[in-house]
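Sequence only, no structure available. Ideas?
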Amino acid sequence: MHADETASTGSEMPGGPATRGRTVTIVWLALIAATVVGWLVSGHDGAGAHPVRIATILGLAAIKIYLVIALFMGLRSAGIGWRLGAVTWNVGTFAAVGLVIAGWPS
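Reply:
I predicted one. Tokens follow.
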């Protein structure tokens, strides 16, 4: 390999290290915000479980899991099959949990 050639591993984000740093920071702040919102919605005030609260918390959890898988576990640079598999797993898991919480099958 010549000095002017660079090897690409496929894991780099467009825009270089500075852009990756900003992206990681923004996603990290979004994960913190989603955690705080989930905690505020969770009914820690003793009001009990409400379907809207449960759906909100499950939705936030699904989004957080996707962000962690996509960015911090490198799925963003993986092939379409891996990305599709991860999204399908995430949606399927949370749909199943939601159905069980809703009382199906009864």
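The helical segments are 17-41, 51-72, 80-101.
Hope that gets you unstuck.
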